[in-house]
């Protein structure tokens, strides 16, 4: 295992890490309804408190933070881990929010796409056209689970549409380096899909058994779930893998390139920072930690 540096602990289910130019990491604490900045020395500062369940984060072209808010989970603490369980008692729907990092002000941008309510927005990625893709992971009840999809929206609040439907609890989302392929990871099926793009917010439907119209890329063996993902500069897709505890590195052709183990069964997300983007920052959510490690290849420079 690569040497791991623990940067911060005591976080309440951290997710959505974003590496900032000043060397800090901005992330969410889902269980606290909070967005937090972690300095290189581990110092923590509250950026904003949007409430609900802030999940995925991305910096938009206007310098604002865009937040996938899943509306909140229920929580169980067991075996030294904080574990999401079901839906928050005060759940009132999901949303996309815009946050001013300088003031902490929170604006709700979208709660619906037409007559489709956002149930549990999860992960987000901006494209080169100023729009963004995001997954809706949905919510889980005692005997029911939402059927959900992937959305495309404009950062100015003028347009949102559900582009891909149906999917099984889509979670991680990312774009290839050329911006022509969209990658989506499903949690409970533990499948990674690729969608060929024909323009901003437009996909080419592949033929096959998948109702969503994607090309199947990869699924691991064993009892595992997929969470959020990041993309390397060379095009490999790095998917946080729950249960197996680590990062699955998958080529654009669907081959497993590497598996980087961690020490938390709820390993949920990855981003890259540093001058050469070869420092990986990983959220270990069950134990409430942000860690870093040297990465063998640079992460993709994100649009935003």
Describe this structure in words.
With 304 residues, this protein is mainly β. The protein has one domain (5-294): Neuraminidase (6 Propeller). The chain is built from no helices and 29 strands. It has strands at 5-8, 14-19, 25-29, 34-38, 44-48, 54-59, 65-69, 73-78, 81-87, 95-99, 106-110, 112-113, 116-117, 121-126, 131-136, 148-154, 160-167, 170-175, 181-186, 191-199, 202-204, 215-218, 225-231, 237-242, 246-250, 256-261, 267-273, 279-284, 289-294. Strands 18, 19, 20, 21 and 22 form a five-stranded antiparallel β-sheet that branches. Strands 1-29-28-27 form a four-stranded antiparallel β-sheet, with no helix packed on it. Strand 10 and strand 11 (106-110) form a beta hairpin. It is globular, with a radius of gyration of 17 Å. The two termini are 32 Å apart. It holds the Pfam family SGL. Residues 13-284 form the SMP-30/Gluconolactonase/LRE-like region domain. Its cofactor is Zn(2+). This is SMP-30/gluconolactonase/LRE family protein.
Features:
304 residues; mainly beta; Neuraminidase; five-stranded antiparallel β-sheet; four-stranded antiparallel β-sheet; 0% helix; globular; SMP-30/CGR1_Lactonase
Write the layout of secondary structure elements.
Layout: E1 5-8, E2 14-19, E3 25-29, E4 34-38, E5 44-48, E6 54-59, E7 65-69, E8 73-78, E9 81-87, E10 95-99, E11 106-110, E12 112-113, E13 116-117, E14 121-126, E15 131-136, E16 148-154, E17 160-167, E18 170-175, E19 181-186, E20 191-199, E21 202-204, E22 215-218, E23 225-231, E24 237-242, E25 246-250, E26 256-261, E27 267-273, E28 279-284, E29 289-294
Antiparallel strand pairs: 1-29, 2-3, 3-4, 4-5, 6-7, 7-10, 8-9, 10-11, 12-13, 14-15, 15-16, 16-17, 18-19, 19-20, 20-21, 20-22, 23-24, 24-25, 25-26, 27-28, 28-29
């Amino acid at each position: 295992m690569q040497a791991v540096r623990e940067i911060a602990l005591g976080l309440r289910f951290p997710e959505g890490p974003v590496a900032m130019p000043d060397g800090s990491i901005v992330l969410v604490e889902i269980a606290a309804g909070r967005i937090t900045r972690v300095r290189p020395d581990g110092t923590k500062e509250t950026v904003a408190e949007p409430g609900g369940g802030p999940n995925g984060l991305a910096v938009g072209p206007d310098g604002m933070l865009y937040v996938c808010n899943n509306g909140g989970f229920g929580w169980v603490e067991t075996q030294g881990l904080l574990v999401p369980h079901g839906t928050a008692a005060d759940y009132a729907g999901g949303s996309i929010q815009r946050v001013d990092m300088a003031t902490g002000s929170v604006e709700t941008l979208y709660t619906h796409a037409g007559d489709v309510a956002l149930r549990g927005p999860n992960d987000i990625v901006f494209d080169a056209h100023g729009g963004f893709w995001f997954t809706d992971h949905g919510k889980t009840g005692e005997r029911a689970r939402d059927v959900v999809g992937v959305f495309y929206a404009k950062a100015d609040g003028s347009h949102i549409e559900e582009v891909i439907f149906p999917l099984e609890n889509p979670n991680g989302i990312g774009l290839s380096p050329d911006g022509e392929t969209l990658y989506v990871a499903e949690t409970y099926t533990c499948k990674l899909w690729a969608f060929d793009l024909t323009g901003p917010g437009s996909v080419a439907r592949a033929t096959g058994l998948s109702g969503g119209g994607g090309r199947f890329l990869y699924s691991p063996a064993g009892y595992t779930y997929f969470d959020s993902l990041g993309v390397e500069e060379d095009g490999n897709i790095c998917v946080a893998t729950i249960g197996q505890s680590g990062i699955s590195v998958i080529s654009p052709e669907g081959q497993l390139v590497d598996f980087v183990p961690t020490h938390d069964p709820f390993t949920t997300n990855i981003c890259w920072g540093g001058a050469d983007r070869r420092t990986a920052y990983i959220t270990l959510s069950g134990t409430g930690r942000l860690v870093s490690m040297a990465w063998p290849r640079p992460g993709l420079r994100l649009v935003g």
